[in-house]
Design brief:
Two copies of one chain form a homodimer.
Chain A (H helix, E strand, L loop, with lengths): L2 H13 L7 H13 L1 H18 L1 E2 L6 E2 L5 H4 L7 E5 L2 H10 L5 E4 L17 H10 L4 E4 L5 H15 L4 E4 L15 H9 L5
Parallel strand pairs in A: 3-4, 3-5, 5-6
Antiparallel strand pairs in A: 1-2
Pfam family, one (chains A, B): RecR_C
Organism (chains A, B): Litoreibacter janthinus
Family (chains A, B): Belongs to the RecR family.
């Protein structure tokens, strides 16, 4: 195989490593980009290079941005005494899209896991404790995933914060808006039933 | 919104334009790349830039490579008098993966379509006719998709080649290997039945 196909194959191989893409969709994506070279492929390469060179984790909360401290941590009006704790940046973005939370975030960078030997020091938990004091936090909202590891982590953080006299809450569990009971797992139904409200 | 998030959003927007990716998977892909910056993001940006600068269509067959004439058209041992006609480069790659065809290819770049005003001149059909004479082709294998436009195009090309005294064949239609009858459409079953063979 000559150089020409090797370059293409190499590109396809790398594209296929992205989550959500396999070899077949990587091939389709590469052909699509070659067809839209000026409009898509060149700008995409530039943007990748630019973000690769500039993206970094916020030193305060772990969000991804291009400055040492991210926009949310810089904006004074988001210092309302609330911190929302999430597992990773994707969760932070999901919360931001909903546009309801007005406070700041703290990205743990994973969950506690005995199996993978991930303890509080491996996550951003000590930093969270510092922030609670330093930023005069009154409420910490735990928005961790409803997995076993996520809930273990939530429990651990709640225990640590309780000793510091901070209100700790977690997202409500229940039926998703627009969700059909028939498609929900038993755990969700039982959680929604336990937390039922008068209407 | 400040510059930092704008750069990320811009990258996500462009990734979301790739076939097979939507906004959600584009976000996941971008976060994944930022985590694997040195191993994936930077090499991918380089590779995209390199391919964008060098990829071009083979002047002879329309395959994509980095030279004026592609490897398959250059290799003398693939000049066996057979040309396989495909709609686009993805189909050529699919044929090559099977590794069975030993001749050369001709990429039409689409199908004839009255609705979209695509006639023979818009495709690479005149070039195919030149090649049939110039490369002493004895057989043209039409490997076009089994869609209406694909079959119309196959018909048209077969007619043109017939006048030039070239054998024209098409891929066999029938039950895919490993395919279950229950999941096949009626057209395939009826084609497979009509083309049944003694065993």
């Amino acid at each position: 195989m000559s150089n020409s196909t090797k370059d293409l194959d190499h590109l396809i191989e790398m594209m296929a490593k992205l989550p959500g893409l396999g070899p077949r969709s990587a091939r389709r994506a590469v052909l699509h980009m070659i067809k839209k070279r000026a409009l898509l492929m060149v700008p995409l390469a530039d943007s990748l290079q630019h973000v690769a060179a500039t993206a970094r984790e916020c030193l305060n909360c772990g969000n991804i941005g291009t400055s040492d401290v991210c926009d949310i941590c810089t904006t004074e009006k988001r210092a309302n005494g609330e911190i929302c704790v999430v597992e990773d940046v994707a969760d932070l973005w999901a919360m931001e899209r909903s546009g309801v939370f007005k406070g700041r975030y703290h990205v743990l960078g994973g969950t506690l896991s005995a199996l993978d030997a991930i303890g509080p020091e491996e996550l951003r938990i000590p930093k969270l404790m510092d922030r609670v004091v330093g930023e005069q936090i009154s409420e910490v909202i735990l928005a961790l995933n409803a997995t076993i590891d996520g809930q273990t982590t939530a429990h651990y953080i709640a225990g640590e914060l309780d000793r510091r006299g901070v209100t700790v809450t977690s997202l409500a569990q229940g039926v998703p808006i627009g969700g059909e009971l028939d498609y929900l797992d038993d755990g969700t139904i039982s959680a929604a039933l336990k937390a039922r409200k008068a209407i």
